[in-house]
């Protein structure tokens, strides 16, 4: 019975020590993977912020262009009206 008990204790010690070893190994690998993912997440966050800034800039430029186009269209409409009025006046003088 003593021999069986000694062997049993030996196997339990081996099991506990290997469990501790592999648990430590697992946690170390988990830390490594987490740090890698954190780095990737940081890089992607920076990239997303840059893209958001580029998008805001493009939207602002687009809005400015739309505003300028609207101004130019109004100016050309006014000029066309003036030209039409001048043509009407000159045609009235000829009559």
Q: Care to give the gist of this entry?
A:
With 95 residues, the protein is mostly helical. It has one helix at 2-94. It starts with a helix and ends with a helix.
Provide a descriptive summary of the structure in words.
- This protein is mainly α and 95 residues long.
- The protein has 1 helix and no strands.
- The N and C termini lie far apart (136 Å).
- The mean pLDDT is 92.
Characteristics of this structure?
95 residues; mainly alpha; 1 helix
Poorly predicted spans: none
Find the structural class using helix and strand composition: mainly alpha
The helix count comes to 1
**Estimated helix fraction:** over 70%
How many β-strands, per DSSP? 0
Distance N terminus to C terminus?
136 Å
CA-atom Rg in angstroms: 40 Å
- Assign an overall shape: rod-shaped
Averaged pLDDT: 92
H/E element order: H
Task: Map the helices and strands.
Layout: H1 2-94
